[in-house]
Design goal:
The complex is a heterodimer of chains A (571) and B (90).
Chain A (H helix, E strand, L loop, with lengths): L1 E4 L1 E4 L2 E9 L14 H29 L8 H10 L2 H12 L5 H17 L4 H21 L14 E5 L4 H6 L5 E6 L7 H9 L3 E3 L13 E5 L4 E4 L3 H23 L5 E2 L5 E8 L2 H9 L5 E5 L1 H4 L8 H12 L6 E5 L26 H7 L1 H14 L4 E6 L5 H21 L8 E6 L2 H5 L1 H5 L4 E4 L1 H9 L17 H16 L3 E4 L10 H7 L3 E4 L4 H8 L4 H13 L3 H9 L3
Parallel strand pairs in A: 3-4, 4-5, 5-6, 10-11, 10-17, 11-12, 12-13, 13-14, 14-15, 15-16, 16-17
Antiparallel strand pairs in A: 1-8, 2-6, 3-7, 7-8, 9-10
Helix pairs in contact in A: 1-2, 1-5, 2-5, 3-4, 4-5, 8-20, 11-13, 13-14, 19-21
Chain B lengths: L1 E6 L9 H11 L4 E6 L7 E2 L3 H6 L7 E7 L3 H13 L5
Antiparallel strand pairs in B: 1-4, 2-3, 2-4
Helix pairs in contact in B: 1-3
Classes of the chains: A alpha/beta (571), B alpha+beta (90).
């Protein structure tokens, strides 16, 4: 049995064989046709057929999507593109002016608009650009006579694995045959995430590193809660998941009912439960699932996949949009956390042998002070009136914090002298994700207002194992006693200096870890929004005394397996 | 010819569903209707075209200017104003 870790984006558990869906993207080369009238007729017929198909798809989506969901509207927008006057004008000009074939005229015009809209630097518009391409492909399939229907023909209920799934893909599968969706890439705001949640089908994204191992027909278990996937599971695992899947759904439903209430331990300690988010759409789901603020706002989405750095005003607009959802609740924003493994050409990150031990996170920010200062200015401006806290990622030394804080002071002086209003009361903190920072936590606590522990990287760096490397799966486990001991050191050092500590790695959303983290004295739990209801429910089950005993015992155990085995009894 | 400048207060701007309802509304009038994003000094584009509306990237808090020319220009401006004022029914 092999275990893979992706990102769970739609709750639920599924067991079944793998079905590989290979969507074919049609690319059209420039071609001249003899008779524009014939081409136009072919195009009109394809547009009409596409309209009928979309209408059917819309009806199917309305029936299948849960009541109250308006995700089906995506298909209405698609249908609107088929009759868009300006788009069709351009196609008409290409048919009659340039004598292009129907295929190329349509392809060129849709690519043109998809390109313009994708270049607008907005996550919403990027999604709309994908919509245009989705509709474009639908029409092209009709024109070239490849209706792509065979590839969606699932004979027995299966786990659908694909590189990418468009909205039409997601909806046009026979839902009775789809146990779960898994895609190579995509995030919590992708179409497949939104639609699979609305359809109530478990889904995982980001399984890229393991795609090659997912051969059609082999048995797998998909856990949409934790993002885990088990390949060739043994009987015991299958049995366990089949049993827990129904129990899980029931307890999730119950937890959702109370998720907008505080998480208070049995003996009355209120614990802050907040969300990890990475965009404007996430802000909404954070609220929906009961987050009491944000423990980690990732800002990378603003900086990636573009040719020039985002402007100050652009950033102010995006931050304001996100902040506006959280009123007086805390919003912990992390400054740019990019390294040589991410596409951002304008940052001119030199090619490195090992980007994870290279110029990344705050090191990169300090080496690109203009980009860093622009972000700080934008955050301070957008933060006016909000409970904003800002933290620096990948801090390894006290000197790095001091250099970062120097920039903060300079930016404040600049803003004040320019007469630009900004938020004065911002708490400044750091991520603890490099072992040296955990070891030096007592010294670091004197430099900042708070810590947030990033257990994903902390466990990778502590155990020297890449979580994405299939040869060392499971080594970088945040429940390893070495990592737990570091977490204890950090929390103790922070509290001794009257600083608060949050944790924003996957560990915070893992129910197994809840009593340990409570017992170690963690002040704030920050997680994927969908994990919030159950973790809140879990916190309510313990007294602080019990949690302390559990934590003490857990960190005294010698191996990860011992810790996991011991903690299972408290789930 | 009738025209109106109005602020888009919708959280996501004129991007997803709101853009679609805006286009639908505009298409229900016979007048020629143009829209420009004043805040971004965009060009004037056909308000009945979904791709054109997307291309002027109207964000939250942007001011848009709508111009209508035709027999039902007054009704068109009024209808679109109501839609924006009602926050696109969201």
């Amino acid at each position: 049995m092999k275990t893979f870790q992706g990102v769970g984006i739609s709750a639920g558990v599924a067991v079944g064989p793998i079905f590989r869906y290979e969507s074919q993207v049609i690319v059209v080369q420039e071609a001249i046709a003899k008779d524009p009238d014939i081409e136009n007729k072919r195009l009109q017929a394809a547009l009409q057929q596409a309209g009928t198909d979309l209408e059917n798809l819309l009806q199917k989506a309305r029936v299948e999507l849960k009541t109250g969901s308006n995700e089906a509207d995506i298909f209405e927008a698609h249908a609107m593109l088929l009759t868009d006057p300006d788009l069709l004008d351009q196609v008409h000009d290409a048919l009659y002016g340039k004598h292009y074939t129907a295929e190329f005229a349509w392809y060129e015009a849709t690519e043109y608009y998809a390109g313009i809209i994708a270049a607008m630097d907005s996550e919403y518009l990027a999604a709309r650009s994908a919509d245009i391409k989705d509709v474009a492909q639908r029409v092209l399939r009709l024109l070239v006579g490849n209706n792509n229907a065979a590839s969606k023909n699932i004979s027995i209920p299966s786990i659908v694995v694909a590189d990418e799934l468009t909205p039409s893909d997601t909806v046009s599968f026979d839902k009775a045959k789809v146990l779960a969706f898994c895609t190579r890439s995509g995030g919590p705001t992708s179409h497949v995430a939104i639609l699979s949640k609305a359809l109530g089908i478990p889904a995982i994204v980001g399984i890229g590193p393991w795609m090659d191992e997912l051969t059609p027909g082999i048995e797998a278990v998909v856990d949409g809660f934790t993002g885990k996937m088990f390949l060739n599971p043994d009987e015991a695992t299958i049995k366990k998941f089949k049993e827990t899947s129904s129990l899980y759904e029931e307890s999730f439903r119950k937890a959702m009912e109370k998720t907008h209430e505080h998480a208070i331990t049995k003996d009355g300690t209120k614990i802050e439960v907040v969300a990890n988010i990475g965009g404007v759409e996430d802000a909404k789901s954070a609220i929906e699932f009961g987050a009491e603020g944000v423990g980690l706002l990732r800002t990378e989405f603003i900086f990636l996949e573009r040719e020039t750095p985002p402007t100050e005003q652009e950033q102010v607009d995006i931050y304001s949009k996100i902040f506006s959802h959280f009123g007086k609740n805390p919003i912990v924003t992390r400054t740019l956390d990019i390294g040589g493994d991410k596409p951002a050409n304008y940052l001119k990150i030199p090619e490195e042998m090992n980007p994870f031990l290279g110029l990344r996170g705050t090191r990169l920010a300090l080496a690109r002070p203009e980009v860093f200062k622009t972000q700080l200015r934008a955050l301070m401006r957008a933060g006016i009136g909000y409970n904003l806290k800002v933290m620096f990622p990948m801090i390894g030394t006290v000197q790095e914090v001091r250099s970062a804080m120097d920039h903060v002071r300079k930016v404040k002086v600049d803003l004040a002298s320019e007469g630009v209003p900004f938020e004065e009361n911002i708490e400044w903190g750091i991520m603890i994700e490099i072992p040296s920072a955990a070891v030096m936590a007592d010294a670091l606590a004197k430099e900042v207002d708070f810590f947030s522990i990033g257990t994903n990287d902390l466990s990778q760096y502590t155990l020297a194992a890449d979580r994405g490397n299939t040869n060392v799966v499971g080594v970088a486990d945040a429940l390893d006693p070495a990592v737990l001991r570091l977490i204890k050191m950090v929390i103790d050092a922070a509290h001794a200096n009257k600083r608060w500590v949050g944790l924003c790695g996957e560990l915070a959303g893992d129910g197994l870890a809840t009593p340990v983290l409570l017992g170690l004295g963690l002040d704030e739990f920050s997680m994927n929004p969908r994990a919030i209801p159950l973790v809140k429910q879990h916190i309510r089950k313990f007294t602080m005394n019990t949690a302390c005993e559990i934590a003490e015992h857990a960190i005294s155990l010698p191996t990860t397996a011992d810790v996991r085995y011991y903690l299972k009894s408290f789930l | 010819m009738e025209s109106l400048t109005i602020k888009v207060i919708n959280q996501v701007g004129l991007h997803a569903r709101p853009a679609a309802s805006f286009v639908k509304k505009a298409q229900s009038f016979a007048s020629q209707i143009l829209i420009e994003n004043v805040s971004k000094r965009s060009e004037k584009v056909n308000a009945k075209s979904f791709v054109k509306i997307l291309s002027i990237a109207v964000d939250h808090d942007n001011d848009i200017r709508i111009t209508a020319d035709g027999d039902d220009a007054v009704q068109a401006i009024q209808g679109l104003k109501e839609l924006v004022d009602a926050n696109f029914g969201e």
